[in-house]
Write a structure and sequence with these properties.
Blueprint lengths: L1 H54 L2 H12 L3 H29 L6 H7 L1 H8 L2 H6 L3 H22 L6 H18 L4 H4 L14 H29 L1 H37 L3 H38 L5 H9 L1 H17 L5 H49 L6 H4 L3 H21 L4 H22 L3 H15 L1
Helix pairs in contact: 1-3, 1-5, 1-7, 1-10, 1-11, 2-3, 2-10, 2-11, 3-5, 4-8, 5-8, 7-8, 10-11, 10-15, 11-12, 11-13, 11-14, 11-15, 12-13, 12-14, 12-17, 12-18, 13-15, 14-15, 17-18
């Protein structure tokens, strides 16, 4: 039940992280226009590289390391302070590099505003609470801050000249959310003598996890950067808007990765190998159940949802969303195998290889696809890259797990998804788009998908019934 509770906490938070920008997107796209949205997307993609190097894999490594040591508070505390000291050095060095880059930037003023996100990296200790599986503190505090940010955007961002204010509010929201997590530190860790700290002890391990993050960032952010450079920042905005909607629904499924990583890592540290495999089977089945429904549901709504949501001037977003929907299942599957199995069981090399293959594929095919097909070319490159990552991870674990158990219910989920997609897509392309029509299509899709699930009877129904009986008994 603890895992389920943590999943709900983290799913809510991850959904909030993308949902609030999505809620403001209809307002921002109309106030700032496609040019302002494009500049924000482009400068945000640039600062994300600096944020990535400031992190140096610490979030993933810290999460796993705390999970390994959480049964010994003193050792856990020492690891925490050593990692904090290491992060202080990496953030400081990265900021110096950023200052050297600034004079060469085309959008230097906006880049200064974006640098608030770089400062926020230092205060981010969410990995500590994730490692000890205490997700409530992270969710509640950061949720309150994000909601305040939303209110500030609606109050202070009023016209196209307020793009800088918009960027500052987003950055301060992230910074404030991270700072509030330090208020609970005394309850979690103890003081350790500075002389006993050896931060560089963690550098090599965090660097190993940093390499795959660089690769992930290449095909997650590079598309926006290359689109902005090759075709103009407006296309960066279109790509970002499509990606935002996709990642909003995907957050519900991938939230299991953050929750399961420390849980699997702790089981692995205690030698419970069979339990680790069983957790993968259960998690993969649950993720497939959600992600397949999301993929076909979004595909059915995509063509008219994007342009209607963002307003005049954002018509290309609809087609881009339709092409991007396969990544929902691909990323969900790679999240289950990579973040919930390979990383917590210390198969970092295999995980690194998978995302490196995806990054290389993305770089190679981005140039021709963006050149000839622009925005849609970047979207297709993203889908192919994610397919390479997921395919390689499946190949890596082929001798460690049983694929029959892993994919037991997947054909049923796809059958239910196709049955949902056909009527939803037909209605979406024939009805006049409005809030009412979109609501009706969503409800219809949910009813059809769940109706098919009850007809096909996948084993997830039995698992859901078991969880319900445990919850009812504990209640």
């Amino acid at each position: 039940m603890k895992v389920i509770r943590n999943y709900l906490y983290n799913a809510s938070y991850q959904l909030l992280l993308v949902l609030l920008p999505l809620v403001t997107a209809t307002y921002i796209s109309r106030v700032l226009g496609n040019a302002g949205v494009g500049i924000n997307a482009y400068t945000s993609s640039i600062i994300s590289y600096f944020v990535l190097f400031a992190n140096v894999g610490i979030n993933l490594y810290g999460n796993r390391q705390i999970a390994y040591l959480r049964n010994d508070r003193k050792k856990m505390s020492q690891a925490f302070w050593e990692i904090i000291l290491l992060r202080t050095m990496t953030v400081g060095l990265t900021f110096i590099v950023f200052l050297c880059y600034l004079p060469f930037s085309k959008n230097s003023l906006y880049m200064i505003f974006q640098s608030i996100n770089l400062v926020a990296v230092f205060f981010d200790i969410s990995w500590l609470y994730m490692g000890i599986e205490d997700f409530k503190k992270t969710v509640v505090r950061n949720a309150a801050v994000k909601i305040l940010s939303l209110i500030a955007i609606l109050v202070f961002v009023r016209n196209k000249g307020d793009l800088g204010i918009y960027i500052i509010i987003l950055g301060l929201g992230t910074l404030l959310g991270n700072v509030t997590l330090w208020l609970f530190l005394k309850e979690t860790v103890v003081k350790i003598s500075f002389r006993n700290l050896h931060p560089f002890h963690h550098f090599r391990s965090s660097l190993i996890l940093f390499i795959p993050q660089v690769a992930v960032n290449i095909y997650a952010v590079l598309n926006k950067t290359m689109l902005g450079y090759m075709t103009g920042t407006v296309n960066s905005g279109y790509y970002n808007n499509s990606d935002t909607i996709i990642k909003t629904v995907l957050a519900i499924a991938t939230a299991t990765g953050t929750v399961m990583l420390p849980h699997v890592a702790n089981a692995f540290a205690n030698g419970q190998r069979e339990k680790v495999n069983q957790m993968l089977y259960d998690s993969f089945d649950f993720i497939s159940f959600l992600s397949v429904a999301m993929m076909f549901g979004l595909a059915g709504l995509a063509l008219h949802l994007g342009p209607y949501f963002y307003g005049v001037g954002f018509t290309p977003v609809g087609e881009a969303m339709l092409f991007e929907t396969p990544v929902v299942v691909l990323i969900a599957w790679s999240n289950a195998v990579g973040n919930q199995y390979l990383l917590p069981t210390n198969h970092t090399k295999e995980y690194t290889a998978s995302v490196t293959i995806g990054a290389i594929a993305n770089v190679v095919i981005n140039f021709p696809l963006i050149k000839y097909w622009g925005l849609n070319g970047a979207i297709i490159a993203t889908v192919i890259s994610e397919a390479c990552v997921t395919g390689y991870q499946f190949w890596v674990i082929r001798d460690r797990i049983e694929f029959k158990k892993l994919f037991l219910n997947v054909p049923k989920y796809f059958l239910a998804g196709i049955a949902m997609f056909i009527p939803v897509f037909k209605l979406n392309t024939s009805l006049h788009t409005s809030v009412l029509s979109i609501f009706f299509e969503v409800v219809l899709g949910i009813l059809i998908y769940f109706g098919m699930i009850f007809i096909l009877k996948p084993t997830i129904l039995n698992k859901a019934n078991e969880i319900f009986m445990i919850w009812k008994k504990n209640k």
